[in-house]
Design goal:
Helix content is 36%, strand content 28%. It is α/β, with parallel strands linked by helices. The strands form 3 sheets. Strands 7, 8, 9, 10, 11, 12, 15, 16 and 18 form a 9-stranded mixed β-sheet that branches. β4, α4 and β5 form a beta-alpha-beta unit. α8 packs across α11. The chain binds NADPH dihydro-nicotinamide-adenine-dinucleotide phosphate.
Length: 399
């Protein structure tokens, strides 16, 4: 029976926290810590009970010493980082110093420059190894489940994989002309980066949102899918060395793109601080403050998400294709957790990854990606904990 420290108490955290509380066969105690302690305390009051003890704390996780102090106060078995990618490095550092397992759901970033790559976290491998604990990177949906889906395909259906296309489509409608489904600042920084994909051992770059493919998705119909860079391309290319091409596509509606272009054109998405009335402020931080909180979209969002991987390759010398995906209903996610499907599809895998680590089912000392472990127990838990998956052995390929 394990003790978990959750850092962050936003949209994704709210689902992870509730799923941890539901999985009381594995977790017996949870400490929820964030900058705004009142949000943590609300969950602690709601979830504390005979099956699991839940406490709240305040922490500013930008500073290593604050996280070290908190870990030393409670001695958790694992720290689940569902704050923002800016906090990954300080929280990892604190986990090394206190010899505590670590998990996150997105690649580390620094505020001053949009962009991310796993190299900034992989360099901690030797130090985690020396501390005798594990850092599990990217245990959300994408990255996370998409990496596990790809490894499941490799384990069960392919001798060699040639291509992987990751499709992340949201058929949900929240009724706002422009809002983001997870943290607006992180979301917009990611979407406005140039599109990058992996082909024949090198990276191809295209202008942001310049390559569109229409794809018909189960449960949500045809969607405009745009080629983007995503961190699991980097880890999949590392752990499936024979792969020839990996691409990532995300769906965007016309209204979203029209607003995004206008905001970009007037400089509102810039991460470079400007002087405003004597204060240094990055336009994107201001934009974040005026956009709806992702957590507030829950009661308004209808429709489904569909996220999965289309894999091609060979088995016993024969060409094969395979598609594995999950569909998640926004309203069902809201009924269960008070959050829409984007937070749900990220929070559930965060709990699953943490459960596999603390039970020693996924084990090792060092920094690891999802691709490095047996996908089967994770796939079983997806079915059990609210994210069942479907298979298609004859999918239409993305052109
Ligand atoms: P939110 O903005 O809703 O929540 C972020 C939380 O982090 C808030 O509770 C915030 O506290 C807290 N926080 C921010 N800074 C600090 C700090 N310095 N110290 C402590 N707590 C802090 O974000 P989301 O829930 O939408 O996203 C959470 C994470 O999930 C992000 O890293 C995001 O990239 C990732 N993600 C991953 C996905 C995947 O599929 N892999 C998909 C979607 C998101 P406060 O409110 O007090 O500021």
């Amino acid at each position: 029976m394990s003790k978990v420290l959750v850092i962050g108490c936003g949209a994704v955290a709210s689902v992870a926290i509730q799923k941890i509380a539901q999985n009381h066969e594995v977790f017996k105690e949870m400490i929820i810590a964030s900058r705004t302690q009142s949000k943590c305390e609300d969950f602690a009051k709601k979830l504390n009970g005979p099956n699991i003890k839940v406490l709240s704390e305040h922490v500013d996780a930008d500073h290593v010493e604050n996280v070290v102090k908190l870990i030393e106060k409670y001695h958790p078995d694992i720290v689940v980082n569902v704050a923002l990618p800016y906090q990954n490095i300080p929280i990892m550092e604190a986990c090394i110093q206190t010899k505590t397992h670590y998990l996150d759901t997105a690649c580390a970033e620094v505020k001053e420059k949009a962009g991310f790559e796993y190299g900034t976290q992989w360099i901690y491998h030797e130090r985690f190894k020396k501390a005798g604990v594990m850092a599990l990177l990217g245990s959300g949906f994408d990255p996370g489940v998409t990496s596990v889906f790809s490894m499941y395909a490799k384990k069960h259906y392919f001798d060699t994989i040639d291509t992987i296309d990751i499709l992340d489509a949201n058929g949900g409608d929240h009724g706002y002309p422009f809002a983001t489904n997870f943290n607006p600042e992180i979301n917009i920084r990611e979407i406005t980066l140039p599109g990058r994909y992996y082909e024949q051992g090198s990276w191809k770059v295209v202008p942001a949102l310049s390559e569109k493919h229409v794809y018909e998705l189960d449960g949500i119909g045809p969607k405009d899918m745009y080629l983007m860079y995503h961190e699991e391309i980097e880890s999949l290319a590392k752990f499936i060395p024979e792969v020839k091409r990996i691409r990532f596509f995300m769906s965007f509606g016309e209204s979203y793109l029209m607003h995004l272009r206008a905001l970009q054109n007037v400089g509102m998405t810039s991460v470079k601080p400007i002087n405003f009335k004597g204060q240094q402020i990055a336009p994107i931080e201001f934009l974040r403050a005026v956009l709806p909180e992702p957590a507030s979209l829950g009661p308004r969002t209808k429709g489904k998400t569909n996220i999965g991987c289309i894999v091609s390759g060979t088995k016993h010398g024969e060409k094969k294709t395979y598609y594995v995906y999950n569909m998640c209903d926004h309203e069902a996610a809201y009924r269960e957790t008070g959050s829409q499907a984007i937070a749900y599809t990220t929070g559930v895998p965060a709990m699953i990854g943490a459960a596999l680590v603390v039970q020693g089912i996924w084990h090792g000392a060092g920094v690891f990606n999802m691709e490095e472990f047996d996908p089967d127990p994770f796939m079983d838990m997806l079915n059990k904990w609210g994210l069942p998956w479907n298979e298609n052995f004859n999918p239409v390929l993305v052109d």
